[in-house]
Design goal:
Blueprint (H helix, E strand, L loop, with lengths): L6 E2 L8 E5 L3 E5 L2 E6 L2 E5 L6 E5 L8 E3 L5 E3 L3 E10 L2 E9 L13 E4 L6 E4 L2 E2 L1 E2 L8 E2 L3 E2 L12
Parallel strand pairs: 1-16
Antiparallel strand pairs: 2-5, 3-4, 3-12, 5-6, 6-11, 7-9, 8-9, 9-10, 10-11, 12-13, 14-15
Length: 159
């Protein structure tokens, strides 16, 4: 689905759906393009904007450094490992994550990385600017076509 087609996050399933996405994604950080691809995956979960997983091969060399600290566990995808994003002296700690050994239902996102949009200078999906999902926990990317109540803002934790 393109970022121009209207999507209501209340219509996304639980457990989350995974779908291939062939649109153009470009990410800028530290004054440079750090990731670019036309081959990614979207995870679509009820009340969340899509989370995009870009192939490791779409990242510029040296822009991802394995982060120190704890991993997290997703009930659907498995154990996540985090990266610091780095470019031209700028660092966004733990701003990207991957599932090195995802559960079988999400095996396609192995060797793919998701990014929080908030610390990035610019995230574009098919030329459309991304707005970070509210809150500091979830990593969905909001575009103008995404509608419905989005989880992440204050007061939305338990629904």
């Amino acid at each position: 689905m393109s970022p121009q087609a209207i999507e209501n996050v209340a219509d996304y399933p639980r457990p989350p759906a995974i779908e291939a996405y062939g649109g153009h994604i470009l990410v800028r950080f530290g004054g440079q393009v750090i990731a670019e691809t036309t081959s990614s995956f979207r995870i679509l979960e009820t009340f969340h904007p899509p989370t995009y997983y870009l192939p490791l091969s779409g990242f510029s060399p040296g822009t991802l450094k394995e982060a120190d600290g704890r991993s997290t566990l997703c009930e659907w995808k498995g154990r996540a490992r985090y990266f610091d994003v780095m470019a031209d002296g700028a660092v966004a700690p733990r701003a990207a994550w991957t599932y090195p050994a995802p559960t079988p239902a999400y095996a396609a996102i192995a060797d793919h990385v998701a990014l929080y949009a908030e610390p990035m200078q610019e995230v574009l999906i098919d030329g459309v600017s991304v707005i970070p999902q509210p809150g500091n926990f979830y990593g969905g990317w909001v575009t103008p076509n995404i509608t419905g109540p989005i989880k992440g803002a204050p007061g939305t934790t338990h629904w």
